[in-house]
Automatic annotation (TrEMBL):
Keywords: Hydrolase. It holds the Pfam family Abhydrolase_3. GO terms for molecular function: hydrolase activity. This is Putative esterase/lipase. The lineage of its organism: unclassified sequences, metagenomes, ecological metagenomes.
Length: 292
């Protein structure tokens, strides 16, 4: 594979991260995603907009496992898949991605969809801190909390900007494992294109909030990206997984054949999908009771 042309101009950096322009049917895929998410709320047992902080977007949705799982007495020990949505930290909502709950629910997970305040209302360190507050709240929440003396239960997953936020919390005590999907792990290129108009990242914020620059002991991490995604997205995931491995951290890289930045989520939504399988494997590695 030849090396990509180095990025130089603002326009080049903007295009290198423009997922919607790179996928010809992006709007159709997103429209279908919204429809499937509305159906997921109707089909599954879900408590919506549970506060974890005082802000209007500091809320989460909780999908509980099916009644047979709870009746078997397994719900209190069941793993939790906490999902953080994408949208380059400035767009989208957890409600848009509820369909991803289907795959993990079929394996006996609780599923949490976390929300957070968007830029430009807050800055990047504030968004990162909000996810920490969410994890703190889950750790003590009735039915989801971590009993004293018990291991952490959360497989923390995120897509795109959510993959970045998940990676920033690899070492949180509530987290058992991380599944970073199509994530952003070095923010310097983001600051050089149009995405930074809302983010207004400073050099200090780039250093503080780039997971690639903050490799430290944390939980096992699976880094996945679509093999049909933009070269920069693939490069970011590959480089982050390599940096984790070079630091001796448990991590693997996965390029999902044929998947782009949007339809990659089918692999989490489908019980038989490759990302669903990774979530189950992470739960098993952490000693949690997900179904096979």
């Amino acid at each position: 594979m030849s090396e990509p042309t180095p990025l130089q101009t603002r326009e080049q950096y903007s295009a290198a991260y423009d997922n919607s322009a790179a996928v010809p049917n992006a709007q159709s895929l997103l429209h279908d995603l919204l429809g499937r998410s509305q159906a997921a709320y109707a089909q599954h047992d879900c408590t919506r907009n549970i506060p974890y902080g005082p802000g209007p977007r500091q809320v989460f949705d909780w999908f509980a496992p099916a009644p047979p799982v709870r009746a078997a007495g397994a719900a209190n020990a069941a793993p939790i898949l906490a999902f953080l949505h994408g949208g380059y930290w400035q767009w989208r909502s957890k409600d848009d991605f509820a369909c991803i709950a289907t795959g993990p629910l079929a394996a006996g997970f609780h599923v949490v969809l976390g929300e957070y305040t968007l830029a430009p209302q807050v800055r990047m360190p504030d968004i990162v801190a909000e996810v920490g507050l969410l994890l703190d709240a889950l750790q003590s929440h009735p039915g989801l909390g971590q009993p004293q003396g018990q291991p952490p239960r959360i497989v923390l997953a995120g897509h795109s900007a959510g993959g970045h936020l998940a990676a920033m919390h690899r070492a949180h005590p509530a987290v058992a494992a991380v599944l970073a999907i199509s994530g952003l792990f070095e923010l310097a290129p983001i600051a050089r294109g149009a995405l930074n108009d809302a983010l207004q990242l400073s050099e200090d914020e780039i250093a503080e909030c780039s997971p690639q620059r903050r490799i430290r002991p944390g939980r096992i991490t699976e880094v996945a990206v679509g093999a049909a995604e933009l070269p920069e997205l693939q490069r970011q995931s590959r480089a982050y997984a390599a940096a984790l491995q070079a630091a001796g951290e448990p991590a693997q890289f996965h390029a999902l054949s044929g998947r782009n930045h949007f339809d990659i989520l089918h692999e989490l939504e489908r019980p038989e999908g490759s990302l669903s399988a990774l979530a189950r494997a992470l739960a098993k590695h952490a000693g949690l009771g997900a179904a096979g």
